[in-house]
Every structure is written in structure tokens, then in C-alpha cells.
Amino acid sequence: MKLTIQVNEGPYQHQASDSAYHFTKAALEKGHEIFRVFFYHDGVNNGTRLTTPPQDDRNVVNRWSELSKEHDLDLVICVAAAQRRGIVDDGEAERNGKDATNIADGFRISGLGQLIEGAVQSDRLVVFGD
Amino acid sequence: MKLTIQVNEGPYQHQASDSAYHFTKAALEKGHEIFRVFFYHDGVNNGTRLTTPPQDDRNVVNRWSELSKEHDLDLVICVAAAQRRGIVDDGEAERNGKDATNIADGFRISGLGQLIEGAVQSDRLVVFGD
Amino acid sequence: MAEDIKKLMYVNRRAPYGTIYAWESLEVVLIGAAFDQDVSLAFMDDGVYQLMKGQNTEAAGMKNFSPTYSALGDYEVTKIYVEKESLEERGLTLDDLQHLVWEDEDDDWAERDSIHLVSRAELADVMAEHDMMFNF
Amino acid sequence: MAEDIKKLMYVNRRAPYGTIYAWESLEVVLIGAAFDQDVSLAFMDDGVYQLMKGQNTEAAGMKNFSPTYSALGDYEVTKIYVEKESLEERGLTLDDLQHLVWEDEDDDWAERDSIHLVSRAELADVMAEHDMMFNF
Amino acid sequence: MSILHIVNKSPYEKNSVAMAAGYAKEGDTVLLIEDAVYAAVKAGSASAKLSGLDVSVLGSDLAARGVAEDKLADGVNVVDYAGFVDLVEAKDSVQSWL
Amino acid sequence: MSILHIVNKSPYEKNSVAMAAGYAKEGDTVLLIEDAVYAAVKAGSASAKLSGLDVSVLGSDLAARGVAEDKLADGVNVVDYAGFVDLVEAKDSVQSWL
Fold this sequence. Notes:
heterohexamer; A: five-stranded parallel β-sheet; E: alpha/beta; 3 helices
């Protein structure tokens, strides 16, 4: 089965990103294909490398980055949602005149079309949110 | 009347930051004193200078920065909440080994004690959230 | 590719302005229109409030995105389902909502209603015919 | 300063883990304990779930912060109100919750219950005696 | 002491309007802001939850949502942000039912 | 076509469990995750909303919240994330009642 996963909330405030992560991992372990993980709304906040969670807690952002590396996962952050919330890569920094970037390893910023394409190309769309 | 305001949600996703802003502005216009605005939970995300909202929409972050400048407002971001969510100033960047900062003008990062102190020192605590 | 044509349903259950879900969901619908899929919008729960007439956000200082709904017909988004039970519970009728229409090119561009008022049971049946539900 | 002693109430209405409010609210209580104010905690709605016994977050991969509640007595947080109606609606009794106690130094460190089971009407009266409510 | 109970969520989505109504006592006021303004609509089934209470509603949030003031339940006061500030001052404390 | 209805909010806080129950048809499954797991507790007043439906609940979210499996309503299936994946595959589509 080919899956697209949508994540609508950022790390820690809601369990949505945790649930999406564990689901994605379980699907990969069962041999399913993850076509894409799409981060929308506050979900874009999963893609910042600037978090420093307490040492006795899980690291939500790094977990996604590592899963991406291990399984060549496509982690896409919605550009419009990212602009509203301040998630920036080199291209966005240049386009919008920002003096810093904060995007984490393994994430890329792209358009909403990537979500639609994910739904069209996949067998299932599973959405996690508030 | 002396007021402390607490904001529990970030910009755009929830109206909380808008409501808190308009309330704070109205209180200042009536001659009340704002002892402090404390940003907690995802509210810390109001303090990033990396947002680029659409040009036909309000700029939630800049509005807070400007109000702070105009009225010498104390805008405090909770350090523990900020670490979980990736809001970083120079001190935090150095302490946690981060290669970038994203804090916006007029905001400062400090401890939860600042919220308690605000409540103790003020006549009213007004909380805005989800 | 014909085999890639899917029945997509955007499920709208949130009030506008209190949260951004309604507005960012509409942004997906507009972008999605370029993909030539078979698209429906469902409005239930507080989602029915998204279609209210007369929204004026000036004093609230937010962007009024409600005029965009009336452009959906031009994007060939013509199937809009509104759940009757949700309207009634909130004391609303179709007259409280915007009148959304589309032009039927197969019938000399006759204007047709986009909104279909359906019961919960009917909307459940419609939902079951779709391949993908978008949730916000 | 005596005039700075205020009656502060932390109002807890959310379930743990689904959102972080319960945990970050507890962090405020712990920090606030250093301020020598008159502090109460109220648990109502899904907030009563925060006090459930036997929380085990290992498989969920989250931090189990529930043991911290039993340390509240050491922080001199001794007034914990649990709303009866919220418990009953959820099919819970006090036996489902942690047994929270504090030691009374004025009575040879006798162990006393921190939790007071109160009706909604009683808790409304208690709330009205407070100067500040913290909401999360 | 009197309390200003602030609610910001729709009564059809969340239970916070009902809780605020359950806790509001004589002398208290319930202020509806953001998505809670729908609770003040007379024809809505949720308006009954607030009957007998002193209720105010934020006008700018009503207008944003397209709710005309003549649709409100009897006795509901419409306030602007200045009126919101006055309510906070008039009551002894504030409880936000988030 | 069959639907997997996912709910993640407490039935005492939000109306999403009730809505999922209203939309679930013969052949569908309701999966309770995160704070929605409380809806499966037999002694809770909300469990009635799910009676007659095919209900699964995520075990790790139950355990996190201290809900013992013997407290669940009759017929509720406890699944792990692998079982969650299987449910997504077994049904034709997924509706998340956020």
C-alpha cells in the first residue's frame, strides 16, 4: 500500500506529530511505501532545527529527520503555511529577505500541490491533527 | 489597573494572539498598565522574526514588536516552552549550540517565574489560548 | 492519466477565524482545482459557518476570505454538500449562507446551484463514494 | 511582602498527553511554589484524567510526568480540588486517582490527604475566593 | 468575589460554554469571544445553556462571522475591546475556559 | 466503500466521537487514538455513543493514560500501531474527525 501522511500540528503541543511518526514507522516496518509526509498548518513547526527539548523527553524533530534519512522519506513543508509561521530554508530566506534559516535536516519546503499529488498518487491519505 | 496577559497559542493557527493583541491595545488606550505579556506553550511562536505572512493579511509578530516599542511593553517568552519549539535568542543559541537565532524585536526569553511574578504584581491576569 | 482520476472530498468542520483551518483548507481546494480530479466539498458541524453571508472582519483585523467561496464555481468546484442537521442545530437555514453557483457549459452556461442540502445519512453515503477525504 | 500574598488557582481541564497543557501547567505550579503564595489546584472536565493511577507512556514514547503530582506535597501544594461531577460523568472514583498527601508540620508531620472531592457548586465557591486563575 | 468567565470556543464543538455556565454565579458575567459568539445566537440550540446569565459578546468577532446583532438572544450585551477591558476591571478576577 | 473513522479527542471535551458515530456505517470501523481512547471506557457516560459500532482503540494511548484494558466496553478491540496500519489497509478510505 502506498501512503501519504498529513501532519497538521507542531511538536509537543499536540500528540499529532507523535501519532503520525509512530504510524509512519509502523507502516514502513510492514513494508508499505510512504509516498510523502506533508506538514501543513502548524505542522510546519516540526521542521525547525532550533528545538532543544528536555533531555529526558523524545526529540520530535530529530526523530523525523532520522526516519527520513533511514528510509529516504520525503518530508514536505507547505510553503504558504511556513511563511505564516516562520519556517525558512535558504531559498525562502533569500526570497523574503530573512537573515537566518531554521529548517531541519531531511525536510524541504514546497507547494500545496505536493499534498494533492500525494493524495492522487497514494492508496490512502491519513491525516493527524488537533 | 495593572494587567498581565498570557498568550498560549502561536500566530495565525488560532485567533488567541489576535484577541490578546487587541485587548492589550485597548487596555493601553484606556490608560491601564500592562505589567507584562507572557507567551507560553505554542504562544512562544509569536516571537519569531522569520514569518512572512501574505501582504493582504495582518502581520501578527510585527504588530507585537511595534506595540512593544511604542509602549515599552515587556514581551516575555517562556524559556522551557521556547526550547521545545525552537525559539532562540543569542544566549539560547550559545547555551544550546544552535547555529541561528529567530527571536523578533521586542521579545525576550526568560523563566516561568516571570508569569507568576506577573500574576502576583498585577490586579488581573487575562489568558488567551485555544 | 485516467487511472489517476480520484474522487476527493474536502471535509470542513471548523468555524472560520477562531482557527485558520477553514482558510488554509480553502487554499488547498484552490490549488487542488488544477489537478483535474473529481472534487466535492462537505460542510458539517461548525464548518457550515464558513459559508455565512455578511462576514465583515474589519474590526477583528483579520483577512475576510469568505468572498473566495463564490469563486469556487469558476474553479469547477461545483459539488458542495451542506449537512442539514448541523444547520438546524445552529438555528440556520440556507438563506443564511452565501448563494453559490456554477455555470453549466453543457447547457448554454445556465447557472446552477452548487450547494446541496443533505441529511447526515445522505452525506455519509456520499462520503463513502470518495477515495480520499482531506481533513483539517 | 504580606500585601503581595495572593490566592492563586491553577485550573486544569485537559487530559494529559493528547496535548501538552497538563504537563506545562504542572511546570508552572512547580516554579510557582517558590513564590510563597496561597496556592490551590482545581481538576475538572478532562483535567481529572491527569491524576489517573498507572499511567505508562513507554509504548507511546512520551515522558510520563504523572509521578510529579505525588511530589506536590513536598512543594507545599496541599489544596487539590477534584470536581465530583467530572469524575462521575467519566465513570471514575477517587480510587482511580493517585492518592496525594502532604505532611502537616504543625501536627507532628501527620500525613493528610491533599485531594478534596467537591461538587461543581462547591468548587465554584472556592474559585470565587481566589484572586487569580491560571488557565492552560 | 465576582468573576469574568471568558469563553472562546463554539458550544457546538466544545463543552466550555456549558462549563462556564455551570460555574457562573450571581454577579458574574460570561463574555463570549472568537468562536464562542455563536452561543449567543437566539435560534441556535446552544443559546439555552446561557439563559438566566449575564452575557456579553465581542462585537468584532460577531461581525467577522456574519452574525447580525438582531439575531442574538434577548439581554445579550454587545461590547467592543474597550468594553472587554471594562469588564475585566469591573469583576474581581478572570477565568478563561480554554 | 468502507471507511476507517479516526477520532483523537475526548468525547467529554469535543463532539468528534459523536460525529464519527453518526457517520459510521455497516462495515466501517471507528479507531480511537490519543485523548479519544477515554470514549471506550465502559463506565464512562460517553461509551453509549459507540454502542453497536465496530470500535478499535490504540493500546499505547490507553496505557499512557492509565486506562486498564479490562475497563473497556465489551467488543472493543485493542490494537498497536501495526494494527492501526492494518486497519488503514483493510478499509477503502480514512476519515479523521479532527
